[in-house]
Amino acid sequence: MTSPDPLYNDWIHQQIRVRPDCLAVYDLTADRPFTWKQFDKRVDALAHWLLHTGIRSGDRIAYLGLNSSDVLEIFFATLRIGAVYVPLNFRLTPPELSFIVSDCTPSAIFYDRSFRDVIDAIDAKVEPEALVESALDGSESAYERCFVADFAAIEPEAVNADTLSMIMYSSGTTGKPKGVMYTRRMMLSSALNLLQPSEASPDSRVLNVMPLFHIGGMQFVLMAVKFGIPHLMMRGFDPATMLSAIDDSDLGITNIGGVPAMWSAMSLMPNIDGVDFSRIRVAATGAESVPEPMLKEWQQRGILLQEVYGMTETSGVICMAQKADLPAHMGYAGRALPYGDVKVMKSETEEAAEGEVGEIWIRGAAVTPGYWNRPDATEEAFVEDWLKSGDIGRRDETGRLSVEDRIKDMYISGGENVYPAEVESVLMAHPDIREVAVIGVADDKWGEVGCAVIASISGDPISLEAAQAQCEGHLARFKWPRQVAHTDALPRNSTGKVQKFILRQQCT
């Protein structure tokens, strides 16, 4: 099948012309490697099956399940016929998934058979023949039968830079999730943004353990396929398995990424000191700020964690710390990448000065045109062509961005603004604090005060006195927490971000 627009839809064919028999995709969990030629053959066969079942350009195709090579086949087959891919978050409940399915009305849903009960519980109109079950390992299934039939060639409809190609739903930590629309231009920009930071070369190899229903994982896919880099993947994150893969010289992994919770989990593994990290060139981390002790710990292992900043709405990473700035400028998410502009706004009409905090605004080819079926939300999110991120940040004299916090997480104590991320960073230096989240709670005297919700390494509660002693000399007293609460683990969403709205419900 000939793709209609080589610039936006023919990345696999580009690789076939130069490296047909080289490794393209390796599903490590199922031990299923594919060359570019083999991968293209399966993508093409699935694209033909979609067309012959009546699916056309603009129709939505959804997937629910764990990471696997099947996901990539479904994604690229959907793009090849000009349809729209919709990844579903398997961590959501059936009512939450029902809302998304009703919103995007997919013509077909592919799913991992371990989620059959979830599919059955979705309360949305989906025809039974539109449900395709996969075993994820190539064994007999409805999905594998899609590759058996011998279909005559059908040419797909033409696409262009503005063709809608994916709808990725936000995590919905406040209210209903919104479907972020992705065009071909966004996908290309997303891949190109990582060209220089990824240090892409013929011998690069990417290990992807991040969920492919989020842009953090999917941007790795776009980058790898665009630049012909082998994409190695697992069902999900497991610290022991990931360290084993990194240590395997035969796999030769050079690029890895994860949220801070992943790096923390790996650092606690008993065999961490025996792992060979020498082949790792790029190690990215994002979704939330990284505590300085964690950055220094990984630096001692020879890993410079490069902090990134981005959103679903910016097709992933839009700023990334560069090695040349590390370790001198740890804590910064770097400067804007080529396909995005970033500024910090003191108000909707006044830009913040250097070093001054404000809301981060973003524009560029990597930014979404808006939300699926939500013109109201689209209008609210943009000022002209600038996307309002909802994040607080500041920039230094060179343009390096420091992400301070979410606007909604800031609280006011005695008339002073307090940014929880700053307090959390100081508390994380305590030797017995494994993770901490600070939230604002009502107070009769000060209006609001900070409550530090702490998970300790020892399992013993951290006292308020100990938490405040940690802040002594590092923070003004109005920033000190006035309450503490103990927890075994902080609640997190599927991107690894702490769900502070749950903590607020528990602490009020």
Short summary:
The chain contains 16 helices and 25 strands.
Please characterize this protein's 3D structure.
The structure is a single chain. By secondary structure, this protein is of the alpha/beta class. Among the domains are: 1-22 and 32-160, Rossmann fold; 410-507, 2-Layer Sandwich (GMP Synthetase, Chain A, domain 3). It is built from 16 helices and 25 strands. It has a 5-stranded mixed sheet. Strands 16, 17, 18, 19 and 20 form a 5-stranded antiparallel sheet that branches. Strands 2-1-10-9 form a 4-stranded mixed sheet. Strand 5 (108-112), helix 6 (116-121) and strand 6 (131-134) form a beta-alpha-beta unit. The longest helix has 17 residues, at 36-52.
Q: How many extended strands?
A: 25
Top CATH class of the domain at 1-22 and 32-160 = Alpha Beta
Mean pLDDT level: 89
Globular, elongated, flat, extended or rod-shaped: what is the shape?
globular
CATH topology name of the domain at 1-22 and 32-160, in short, is Rossmann fold
- Fraction of residues in β-strands: 25-35%
- The number of helical runs is 16
Q: What percent of the residues sit in helical stretches (DSSP H or I)?
A: 25-40%
CATH homologous superfamily assignment of the domain at 1-22 and 32-160:
ANL, N-terminal domain
Terminal CA distance? 59 Å
* Architecture (CATH level 2) name of the domain at 1-22 and 32-160: 3-Layer(aba) Sandwich
Major β-sheet strand ordering: 11-12-13-14-15
Task: Provide the structure class.
Answer: alpha/beta
Low-pLDDT runs of 5+ residues are: none
How is the main sheet built? 5 strands, mixed
| Radius of gyration, CA atoms, in whole angstroms | 23 Å
Oligomer: single chain
